[in-house]
Design brief:
The protein is an alpha/beta fold and 434 residues long. Helices cover 37% and strands 30% of the residues. It folds into three domains: 140 residues, Immunoglobulin-like (Sandwich), CATH 2.60.40; 179 residues, 3-Layer(aba) Sandwich (Rossmann fold), CATH 3.40.50; 83 residues, Four Helix Bundle (Hemerythrin (Met), subunit A), CATH 1.20.120. The two termini are 35 Å apart.
Length: 434
């Protein structure tokens, strides 16, 4: 029987200089689900979704609500018999417009969506109310062999942002939260944090006409999930410290610098894995000097659930060779260093954004210029174009307050944050080391 998952540890170098006081080593911990072994040998998990739709007044701009209705109709047309999907509309109030037992009735789906204009729920934006109603619906059908998720779509700022974050964090052990932001008026930091904290997905939708396609992509991704509730456990050897940790794929974002407890064990939650799409963490480790010879600097385990089969674990060690030969330590693993570069570019873009908000335009453009050089070196054409567009807007407007500048910023965030997956042949070359 094929293994349901592979779990590997790759270090930026196989060799560590014995005399170095604080040797920096990058370690990539990566899990890839094969799509076999669970839920009846690779059959997809049934869905248990709560779809939360913003029906505030601004959703009528640019036909946003019209495209949302089209997307949810697509969802209703592609529902499987065992799927449970509830739909909630919100503005100042929230109302469940489709319950899980109605989603299989195409006539009921179309009537509910066609009548969404008639709902007496106000015109403001109380996203927490919509989330709470969807969570309640999802909880009614919670099951370990289901993919439990809340999907939020909004185009505006909301009241009670803290309540939205709290709801995602309080329920993250039972369900994930994906968020779609339309236009430029929504709070992207809020939607990103909700999604990242709960291991869902965040989407920026610049053109409302993209809504149906992104709904379709989200549905396809959920259909591909074969591993549930993954988490990476790392037990560090004495003297080894973590300087930084980043989620490295499928999206890049910081995981912070953890305090290492007495047992030296640190846990990074990964969430659900789609078949073939890596879920990985990139660690920046600082190693102490040691005598020459092989050393295990960390033990790592990937714990996960296979639907219908319970919890499983995959283990791997991180070992290096301490040496006095500096030429050996200069050899680098190309795959790891490629991801280190991608993370560095994402950090530069984020720093540039902070400088712009502080009014430091010159510093921001220098940071963006460095980020562009990095994307050009990697051959990431889309990221280069997005960052060049952002820098042009910044130079032109000297601010992020214009609609055009905010749009280019959100586009750059989306492209830079997404890990550039290498084609198989390029990956083989990088695995050989540079």
């Amino acid at each position: 029987m094929a293994e349901p998952l592979s779990f590997d540890a790759l270090a930026s170098s196989e060799y560590v200089l014995s005399t170095a006081e604080n040797f920096v080593l990058y370690v990539l911990l990566e899990a890839v689900a094969s799509g076999v072994g669970g839920a009846g040998g690779g059959n997809r998990m049934p869905l248990n979704l709560g779809v939360v739709l913003d029906r505030s007044g601004s959703m009528y701009d640019e036909r946003r609500l019209e495209f949302v209705i089209e997307a949810v109709k697509f969802l209703g047309d592609n529902v499987a018999p065992e799927d449970k999907i509830a739909v909630v509309a919100f503005a100042d109030k929230a109302q469940v417009i489709l319950r899980p037992d109605q989603i299989h009735d195409r006539g009921a789906v179309r009537r509910a969506l066609d009548d969404i204009d008639l709902l007496e729920i106000g015109g403001g934006t109380q996203m927490a109310l919509g989330m709470r109603a969807a969570i309640d619906e999802v909880k009614q059908n919670l099951a370990p062999n289901r993919l439990n998720r809340v999907l939020v779509l909004t185009d505006g700022q909301t009241y009670e942002e803290t309540a939205c974050i709290d709801l995602a964090n309080q329920n993250r052990d039972q369900m994930s939260f994906s968020a779609m932001g339309v236009g430029v008026e929504f709070n992207e930091k809020l939607l990103m944090r909700m999604s990242q904290d709960s291991h869902g997905k965040y989407h920026f939708i610049g053109d409302p006409a993209e809504i149906p396609g992104i709904f379709e992509d989200e549905l396809e991704g959920m259909r591909a999930v074969s591993v549930r509730n993954g988490r990476i456990e790392v037990t560090l050897a004495q003297g080894v410290q973590v300087r930084e940790a980043f989620r490295a794929s499928p999206e890049i974002y910081t995981l912070g610098t953890p305090l290492v407890p007495e047992d030296r064990k640190i846990t990074y939650e990964i969430g659900d894995l789609e078949a073939g799409l890596p879920g990985s963490v990139l660690l920046t480790l600082v190693l102490p000097p040691r005598k020459p010879g092989p050393v295990r600097i960390a033990q790592s385990a990937f714990r996960f659930e296979l639907p219908g089969l319970g919890e499983r674990v995959a283990n791997t060690d991180v070992t290096v060779e301490y040496t006095l030969d500096r030429t050996l330590t200069s050899k680098r693993n190309g795959r790891v260093m490629n991801l280190v570069d991608q993370v560095s570019i994402a950090k530069l873009q984020a720093k540039a954004e902070e400088e712009l908000k502080a009014g430091n335009v010159d510093r921001a453009t220098r940071l963006l210029s460095n980020a562009i050089q990095g994307t050009q070196r990697l051959g990431n054409v889309k990221a280069t174009q997005a960052l060049v567009g952002l820098m042009d807007q910044v130079k032109k407007t000297q601010t992020l307050q214009t609609k055009a500048a905010k749009t280019t910023l959100l586009q750059a965030q989306a492209v830079v944050r997404k890990t550039q997956m290498l084609d198989p042949e390029a990956l083989k070359e990088l695995q050989k080391g540079e």
